């Protein structure tokens, strides 16, 4: 659904967008690795969470920060600043309504003292500054020196700042970030700035941010900022794939090293008891594991989410010094295969009974919040959910870590949501989409929980340019990672969808008796059955109902069920479930409710403090529908499980 974010009197067309686009060529994406920072015998990490100095650029062109070079000195010296927590969205932190819907450049700053051991030595260690994500476009300076630019609000970026901090007097490190949340037809997700030129109705230079997606465009430094070190010669990237049979598994690996040719490179694979089960050496090879413990999804095995630890150790001569770098990567041994009617994990049919989510909560917006993350995983397991889709953007690495650990299966989705305008299918948008898929796969390629890539959600795939666009994006994704199937999520007519021929699994969103025939629950069996049969007859590919649901206002009751009541949400789910139960015996391989929890959207006449399609409230309290879904998911788990004794919610969770 279309939405808009508000803006106060602001920049005219010639100022804001050229200012944003001025910085687009300097992307940080490239061939380098993006290993998650970890403490090891050779590496240190330091999180920079807490309070940062903050200022929104309220100048008419949003460009005062660049004109006055705010990055050249402490931010407090160029004007007033306020405290801003990191990680968090800035929108809901203050009582200032202009910041809630602010569009343009904001500035963050943090001053930290570095340990002397990070600045000395021959050779001195490599010091890296890493952002888990910042929405949307970022420019970063250290001690007044620009070190990195990055486009995109949901994936990590980093910069080697060794030369800057080791060449500066003292140990002070001043980090300055300029962040712009403007969305254009060529960003991902796309958007557009609409200027209101009727002076009888709007102030001078009034504009709003228009988007074609139904969630609030929160902005800020949303995930942890980390300083970490490596030796001057270091392990840059590790790629792992696995195959298995009944009694043996093979772990194929590829390791890249930067800074010097490694004198030696050794690998040790350890089980959860610390026992070495396989060893190897050299940058490319495979490890043979006898009688492996496979990575199984939650509720599919009595020990789900089994992870080995792959320790990679490198020694290299740099000058007169022998350097050693050590990195440990969690590894899950599992296989994925798709047939015309099934989705197989480790050779066994897997049925997705799960949810769609959002990174969204009161006050912190999309900011990473550990209590909320742990609560959500506890609710997922209480619910009997075995999977979720990262709707509609990549989620934090910390969330993905727990998916690996708990055995929660993930459809990993790019920020390709709201691709509706014809100009968003052009070459400029396409090239950026390809770069985003490279960044996403580079980050998540080794995760056993990730079983499928989703390149987009509800694009205008009925438009003719969508054929070339999605053929190219999907082919590129498969070339980067041949080990996983690829999909995108559609709400187009089966006969008109130009992207569907290229996916491995059909993912369909539909809201019968809500957006179509509102209030008429009786049409669901006929329309949903026809939907499945038409898609399968056309493509002969397995189908996931990737979204379905209804808004319900907690505490609003009606019998007979009326829209927005908890009873209507329950009734709609049951109508859908009756069709799912027939078709999952054939070619339907999954169902993902929309949504796990209520979430914030732009203001509009159909949204009362956000989208209310959650089975939990935004505060994570259950609505009546949560219990309907819980009963269903545990029943499905019992039917499909071969565990002795029969799984119950009490034996595995409560």
From TrEMBL:
Residues 336-637 form the Glycoside hydrolase family 2 catalytic domain. Pfam families: Glyco_hydro_2 (PF00703), Glyco_hydro_2_C (PF02836), Glyco_hydro_2_N (PF02837). GO terms for biological process: carbohydrate metabolic process; glucuronoside catabolic process. It is an enzyme of class 3 (hydrolase). Its main location: other. Residues 233-334 form the Glycoside hydrolase family 2 immunoglobulin-like beta-sandwich domain. GO terms for cellular component: extracellular space; lysosome. It is found in: Lysosome. This is Beta-glucuronidase. It comes from Eulacestoma nigropectus (wattled ploughbill).
């Amino acid at each position: 659904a279309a939405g808009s974010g508000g803006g106060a009197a602001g920049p005219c067309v010639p100022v804001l967008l050229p200012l944003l686009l001025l910085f687009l060529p300097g992307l940080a994406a490239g061939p380098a690795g993006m290993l998650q920072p970890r403490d090891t015998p050779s590496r240190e990490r330091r999180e920079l969470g807490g309070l940062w100095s903050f200022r929104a650029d309220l100048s008419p062109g949003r460009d005062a920060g660049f004109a006055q070079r705010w990055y050249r000195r402490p931010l407090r010296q160029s004007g007033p600043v306020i405290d801003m927590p990191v990680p968090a969205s800035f929108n809901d932190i203050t009582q200032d309504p202009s910041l809630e819907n602010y569009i343009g450049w904001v500035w963050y700053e943090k001053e930290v003292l570095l340990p002397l051991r990070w600045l000395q030595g021959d050779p001195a260690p490599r010091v890296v500054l890493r952002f888990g994500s910042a929405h949307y476009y970022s420019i970063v300076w250290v001690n007044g020196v620009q070190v990195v630019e990055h486009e995109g609000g949901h994936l990590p970026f980093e910069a080697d700042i060794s030369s800057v901090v080791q060449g500066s007097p003292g140990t002070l490190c001043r980090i300055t970030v300029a962040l712009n949340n403007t969305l254009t037809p060529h960003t991902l997700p796309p958007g557009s700035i609409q200027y209101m030129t009727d002076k009888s109705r709007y102030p001078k230079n009034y504009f709003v941010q228009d988007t074609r997606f139904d969630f609030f465009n929160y902005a800020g430094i949303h995930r942890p900022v980390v300083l970490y070190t490596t030796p001057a010669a270091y392990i840059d990237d590790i790629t792992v794939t696995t195959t298995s049979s009944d009694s043996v598994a093979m772990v194929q690996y590829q390791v890249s090293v930067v800074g010097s040719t490694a004198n030696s490179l050794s690998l040790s694979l350890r089980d959860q008891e610390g026992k070495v089960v396989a060893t190897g050496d050299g940058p490319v090879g495979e490890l043979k594991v006898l009688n492996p413990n496979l990575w199984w999804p939650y509720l599919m095995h009595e020990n789900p989410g089994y992870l080995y630890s792959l320790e990679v150790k490198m020694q290299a001569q740099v000058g007169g010094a022998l350097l050693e770098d050590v990195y440990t990567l969690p590894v899950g041994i599992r296989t994925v295969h798709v047939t015309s009617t099934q989705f197989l994990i480790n050779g066994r049919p897997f049925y997705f009974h799960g949810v769609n989510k959002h990174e969204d909560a009161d006050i912190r917006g999309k900011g990473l919040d550990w209590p909320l993350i742990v609560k959500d995983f506890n609710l997922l397991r209480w619910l009997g959910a075995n999977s979720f889709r990262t709707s509609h953007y990549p989620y934090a690495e910390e969330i993905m870590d727990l998916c690996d650990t708990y055995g929660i299966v993930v459809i990993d989705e790019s920020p390709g949501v709201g691709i509706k305008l014809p100009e968003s299918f052009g070459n400029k948008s396409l090239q950026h989409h390809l770069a985003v898929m490279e960044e996403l796969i580079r980050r998540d390629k080794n995760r056993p929980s990730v079983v499928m890539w989703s390149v987009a959600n509800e694009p205008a795939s009925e438009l003719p340019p969508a054929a070339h666009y999605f053929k190219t994006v999907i082919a590129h994704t498969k070339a980067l990672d041949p080990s996983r199937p690829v999909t995108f999520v559609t709400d187009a007519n089966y006969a008109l969808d130009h992207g569907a021929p290229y996916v491995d699994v059909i993912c369909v969103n539909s809201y019968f008796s809500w957006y179509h025939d509102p209030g008429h629950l009786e049409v669901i069996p006929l329309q949903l059955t026809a939907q499945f049969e038409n898609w399968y007859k056309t493509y002969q590919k397995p189908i996931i109902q990737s979204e379905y649901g209804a808004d319900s206002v907690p505490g609003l009751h009606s019998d007979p069920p009326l829209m927005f009541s908890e009873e209507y949400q329950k009734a709609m789910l049951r109508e859908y479930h009756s069709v799912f139960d027939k078709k999952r015996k054939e070619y339907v391989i999954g169902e993902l409710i929309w949504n796990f929890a209520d979430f914030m959207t732009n203001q509009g006449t159909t949204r009362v403090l956000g989208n209310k399609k959650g089975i939990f409230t935004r505060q994570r309290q259950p609505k009546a529908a949560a219990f309907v879904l819980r009963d269903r998911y545990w029943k499905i788990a019992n039917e499909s499980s071969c565990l002795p004794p029969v799984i119950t919610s009490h034996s595995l969770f409560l």
